[in-house]
Design a protein that fits this description.
single chain, about 450 residues, mainly alpha, Growth Hormone, Chain: A, disordered N terminus, Proton-linked_MCT, transmembrane transporter activity, transmembrane helix, membrane
Length: about 450
């Protein structure tokens, strides 16, 4: 009767009324209403701003670890610990940032968004104030507060804040994620300037860390107030991490993508963590070396926005594969850097192309069958790939040794990123066969 009335109304008005059953099927399942995404508006863009500030203050701060690494190697932990041992602080931080996505992704999907983000922000501020009261030569204090503490803080807030963008954007999701993720790149450019000036100026290390922690406290407070979930979360009794893991690991494109991400992250952060040290050991002016990370992360901001905008037109895989391949080539090219001009060119190019690896979250999301599993897919992927970030830079640091033999860690990092690019290529090939399109 309802169907007959709809057909009659369509004949009178000349407008074809969509079949509700067909419309529901297109949405993913019969009986579920179609989800409408704002794709913009003041509320959506305020959320993007909130995520941007969060990325600036958390992941962006960890991107400035190269300043800490250089200060620890040449001053704070000098003569007591090797470069490889010191690298474990940054690599543990990166590992926890990514691997805790298994917990935070599931927590986000089941409605614990505010708990995770608030807890992560508070822990981040607390741990940075703890770093400010550490003593020179006390490795364990830095490892606990900066390696473990900050890593956990960023890890439990990273996936939920990113995943929140999926509540407001679908068609323009990659663009929104790129804009939000540029916060970590801008943070990676701004924080090194501030930290180098504080550490090597009149303020000193301890007061400098406290000043930066105070800035983080203000920015993270604003970020938290701007974030607001929009869509209903899944039932907390529905599914489990183990069930999700079994389901996702039967998806070959997803498996190759996870392996590729682990390999890429094993080598991608080596130039970021060691560029400042590499510049100084090449005999270049230390004042110039302090700005190498600024240039790299500044270019990374563009690399996080422009490729994302392109990805909405030609597909995420079609953008990230050549960008990762270019990053691999640049890692090898770092062996040829000997002067100021070469360092600037490398920092700008590597910053741009490595910044495009920010497309990892939308790439993971592109393989999801429904929006409610995006958080779980991101969490599981980052859990496995976090191991790449954990062991990559310490291995590179061990290969570097106290003699600073740069070709060995460069070769290791370059091979990791190269094979990661090959895995992404295979993932794209399999996904295109499944979906019957090359625009992935």
């Amino acid at each position: 009767m309802v169907s007959h009335d709809l057909e009659s109304e369509s004949e009178k008005t000349g407008v074809r009324t969509p079949d509700p059953e067909k419309r529901a099927k297109e949405c993913g399942s019969v009986g579920q209403p179609e989800v409408d995404f704002p794709e913009g508006g003041w509320r959506a863009w305020l959320v993007v701003l909130g995520v941007w500030l969060g990325q600036f203050s958390t992941f962006g701060y960890t991107n400035a670890y190269g300043v800490y690494n250089d200060f620890y190697v040449r001053d704070y932990l000098k003569d007591r610990y090797t470069s490889s041992q010191i690298s474990w602080i940054g690599s543990t931080q990166l590992f926890l940032t990514l691997s805790l996505g298994l917990v935070s992704g599931r927590g986000f999907d089941t409605g614990y968004f505010y708990h995770l983000v608030f807890g992560g922000y508070v822990l981040m501020i607390f741990c940075m104030f703890m770093v400010s009261i550490t003593q020179p030569g006390q490795y364990y204090q830095l490892f606990l507060s900066q390696g473990l503490g900050v890593g956990i803080a960023v890890g439990i807030s990273y996936v939920p804040s990113y995943g929140l963008l999926a509540h407001y954007f679908k068609r323009r999701r990659a663009t929104a994620m790129g804009i939000a993720a540029s916060g970590s790149a801008i943070g990676g450019a701004v924080h090194p300037i501030m930290l180098n000036q504080l550490f090597h100026g009149r303020v000193g290390f301890h007061a400098g860390v406290r000043a930066s922690a105070g800035l983080l406290a203000g920015l993270l407070t604003i970020s938290f107030l701007l974030l607001r979930p929009r869509l209903p979360f899944t039932s907390r009794k529905q599914g489990s991490t183990l069930i999700n893991l079994r389901t996702f690991l039967r998806d070959p494109p997803y498996v190759f993508m996870v392996i590729g991400t682990a390999l890429v992250l094993s080598g991608l952060y080596f130039p970021i963590f060691f560029l400042q040290l590499h510049t100084i050991t090449n005999g270049l002016d230390s004042n110039f070396a302090f700005y190498t990370l600024v240039m790299l992360n500044g270019a990374s901001a563009l690399g996080r926005i422009l490729p994302n905008m392109l990805a909405t037109r030609i597909g995420v895989f079609n953008v990230i594969v050549p960008c990762v391949a270019a990053s691999a080539i640049l890692v090898y090219c770092s062996l040829a850097i000997k002067d100021v001009a070469g360092t600037i060119i490398f920092a700008l190019l590597y910053g741009f192309f490595s910044g495009a690896c920010n497309l990892l979250p939308p790439m993971i999301g592109s393989l999801a069958e429904k929006d409610t599993e995006i958080g779980a897919r991101m969490g599981i992927c980052f859990t496995f790939t976090g191991f790449g970030g954990l062991v990559g830079t310490p291995i590179a640091g061990a290969l570097l040794s106290t003699s600073f033999i740069w070709w060995r860690p460069v070769l290791f990092a370059g091979l990791c990123v190269t094979f990661g690019a090959l895995c992404f290529t295979m993932s794209r090939f399999l996904a295109s066969r499944q979906k019957g399109t090359q625009w992935l």
